């Protein structure tokens, strides 16, 4: 059975999709861009954008009753791979702060353009154990 996950603590979908789906044992989030769900603002700095995207993923995972430590895979889309070092450092800090037992598996790819012309989008898969 598939359950749709929705939280006001992450941006609402801006198209025909949901924030996440819960398959019982696995949660798949849609890509999260760095929109602050309370203000609608987007940070200009790529490090702040990375943190906001990760916080949005976290809010969705928590709505499903899981934690950051349950994330097993992420995909990071960046508009400029020259930002990789800065994004990577913020990504590492985020998962360390949330005491992830390991780092999740990850793919990181450069893309030509992202919604709202942001610099980053992050999606995640979490597992309920």
From TrEMBL:
What would be an example GO MF term here?
A: deaminase activity
Q: Which domain of life is it from?
A: Bacteria
Can you cite an annotated GO cellular component?
A: cytosol
NCBIfam families listed in its UniProt record: Rid family detoxifying hydrolase
Give the family from UniProt: Belongs to the RutC family.
Query: What is the recorded name of this protein?
Result: RutC
């Amino acid at each position: 059975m598939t359950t749709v996950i929705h939280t006001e603590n992450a941006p609402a979908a801006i198209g025909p999709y949901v924030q996440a789906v819960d398959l019982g044992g696995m949660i798949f989030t849609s890509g999260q861009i760095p929109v602050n769900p309370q203000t609608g603002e987007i940070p200009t700095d790529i490090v702040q954008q990375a943190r906001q995207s990760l916080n949005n993923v976290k809010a969705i995972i928590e709505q499903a009753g899981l934690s950051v430590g349950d994330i097993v895979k992420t995909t990071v889309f960046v508009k400029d791979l020259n930002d990789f070092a800065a994004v990577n450092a913020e990504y590492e800090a985020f998962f360390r702060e949330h005491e992830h037992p390991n780092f999740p598996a990850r793919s990181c790819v450069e893309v030509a353009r992202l919604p709202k012309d942001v610099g980053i989008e992050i999606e995640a898969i979490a597992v309920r154990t």
